[in-house]
Amino acid sequence: MTVTVVTGAARGMGRSCAERLKGSVEHLVTVDLVAPEIEGTIGLACDVSDPAAIAALVDHVGTLGPFRALAHAAGISPTMADPRRIFDVDLVGTQRMLDAFEPLVVSGSAAVCFSSLAAYQIAPFADPTLDALIDEPLAADFLDRIAGLVTDSGYAYGLAKRGVVRAAARAAVRWGRRGGRVNSLAPGIIDTPMGRQELEQQPVMRTMLEQVPLGRLGGADEVAAAAAFLLSDDASFVSGIDVLVDGALMPGMAARGTAGP
Ligand SMILES: NC(=O)c1ccc[n+]([C@@H]2O[C@H](COP(=O)([O-])OP(=O)(O)OC[C@H]3O[C@@H](n4cnc5c(N)ncnc54)[C@H](O)[C@@H]3O)[C@@H](O)[C@H]2O)c1
């Protein structure tokens, strides 16, 4: 029996991914800071910023059967932490997960890592020095250096998620040699506990929401549907890309001349 893993599965989009995948995959392992309790799945506690916890997770997955898929939705947002912690969970954690699962990759394995619309918002302001840093998130001094340069949590989040897009593309090259695929998925403004918290605490988010051409928040299940496609054999030649699931918010903002952080 193959094994599929969903992180951040206690709530939000990770939870929706778990609910959507559980009927169509064999073993489903659900992961969060506290072990999720979702019927028909194996719930495990794992802090995705803790290398030892990731190693234990991967060991456990390896004992259950061949590795089929990973939906890595665990993450934190600008109003939840300072820049250092955001980089540690969102970027360093993603790189560690991709590296740790790599030895388990067999033909047909696939991963989708959650990036963000925020990565697109900071793209016009990309800085080669910062890009060089985020491309080496496991460097010994990474968190000290990046936290010394980036002091705004919103910018840190966008930059960390830009790093996720780039880490997933690099992993696609490595996993591809074993027949595995890696993509990232960038949600827009989505109706989850995180999305609602950002909407409540950041007025700019409400202005952005008004510019979604579809005129509404995205549903967590709508994002889970896109993630499930990327993990499925229907996407068997889709690898190394970022899929923006934002109800056309980015082109909506560009049309109004308001794209940017
Ligand atoms: N909601 C949005 O509008 C939105 C937009 C763009 C990107 N995203 C990204 O999508 C992903 C899912 O977001 P969501 O809205 O479902 O968030 P959420 O906060 O509703 O759920 C995230 C889950 O991740 C878990 N988590 C956080 N840190 C963890 C850690 N260190 N180890 C293990 N689990 C941890 C939390 O406990 C929580 O259950 C995140 O990566 C987020 O950055 C969300």
Question: What do you see in this structure?
Answer:
α8 crosses α9 (203-209). The mean pLDDT is 97. Strands 3-2-1-4-5-6-9 form a seven-stranded parallel β-sheet, sandwiched between helices. It has a two-stranded parallel sheet with strand order 7-8. The chain has helices at 12-21, 51-64, 83-101, 117-122, 128-134, 142-149, 153-176, 193-201, 203-209, 220-231, 249-256; strands at 3-7, 27-32, 42-45, 67-72, 110-114, 181-187, 190-191, 218-219, 242-245. 48% of the residues lie in helices and 16% in strands. The protein binds nicotinamide-adenine-dinucleotide (NAD).
Summarize the structure.
With 261 residues, the protein is α/β, with parallel strands linked by helices. The protein is 48% helix and 16% strand.
Bound molecules: nicotinamide-adenine-dinucleotide
Cα end-to-end separation:
45 Å
What is the gyration radius calculated from CA atoms? 17 Å
Q: Which sequence of strands runs across the widest sheet?
A: 3-2-1-4-5-6-9
Inertia-based shape:
globular
Poorly predicted regions: none
What is the helix/strand order?
EHEEHEHEHHHHEEHHEHEH
What percentage of amino acids are in beta strands?
Answer: 15-25%
Residues in helices, as a percent range: 40-55%
**Overall pLDDT:** 97
The computed structural class is alpha/beta
Write the layout of secondary structure elements.
Blueprint: E1 3-7, H1 12-21, E2 27-32, E3 42-45, H2 51-64, E4 67-72, H3 83-101, E5 110-114, H4 117-122, H5 128-134, H6 142-149, H7 153-176, E6 181-187, E7 190-191, H8 193-201, H9 203-209, E8 218-219, H10 220-231, E9 242-245, H11 249-256
Parallel strand pairs: 1-2, 1-4, 2-3, 4-5, 5-6, 6-9, 7-8
Helix pairs in contact: 1-10, 2-3, 3-6, 3-7, 8-9
Bound molecules: nicotinamide-adenine-dinucleotide.
Residues 7-8, 10-14, 32-33, 47-49, 73-77, 89, 114, 116-117, 187, 189-190, 192-195 line the site of nicotinamide-adenine-dinucleotide.
